[in-house]
Specification:
By secondary structure, the protein is of the alpha+beta class. It has one domain: Jelly Rolls, CATH 2.60.120.10. It contains five helices and eight strands; from the N terminus they run H-H-E-E-E-E-E-E-H-E-E-H-H. Strands 1-8-3-6 form a four-stranded antiparallel β-sheet. A hairpin with a 2-residue loop joins strand 4 and strand 5. Helix 1 crosses helix 2 and helix 2 runs antiparallel to helix 4. The radius of gyration is 15 Å and the shape is globular. The chain starts with a helix and ends with a helix. The relative contact order is 0.21.
């Protein structure tokens, strides 16, 4: 993926939407693009995580204890909990269609949190929103 295309995709993600072009360039330089075939398990529940993933194209399902708990698509991301806490993955993510992902390794992700002012706060805000949504789903089930 050309850097301009990667920048366009990054700027469309809620987490990065208020980043400057310079900050988006830093994120683009620190990340890699990966293509994934349909059916591939991208992350496995219970294993240690070392990457953060942003979906550029395609759809994925999130499964916990073998049960589908969510669907993810372009602009959504996963893996931040394992990268931030250096813990095991709390769910598996499986590609439902061919996918293009932007991937940040643990070291690069940590460096970006240090280098890009406000990114950590934005990440916390988005995680709080996701936690609130998960809590609402749990209460309604």
């Amino acid at each position: 993926m050309a850097r301009d295309s990667k920048l366009d995709h990054l700027s469309q993600v809620r987490l990065f939407a208020s980043c400057t072009k310079k900050e988006l360039n830093q994120i683009a330089r620190a990340s890699d693009e990966v293509s994934v075939a349909a059916g591939k398990e991208i992350v496995t529940e219970g294993t240690f995580g070392h990457e953060f993933f942003l979906i550029v194209e395609g759809e994925a399902s999130v499964r916990r204890n073998g049960r589908r708990i969510a669907a993810l698509g372009p602009g959504q991301y996963f893996g931040e909990l394992a990268v931030l806490s250096r813990s095991v993955r709390n769910a598996s993510v499986i590609a439902e269609t061919p996918m293009k992902l932007v991937v940040l390794g643990q070291r690069e992700f940590g460096a970006l949190l240090d280098e890009v002012p406000g990114l950590g706060r934005k990440l916390l805000e988005q995680m709080a929103i996701r936690l609130r949504e998960a809590d609402e789903r749990a209460v309604s089930n």
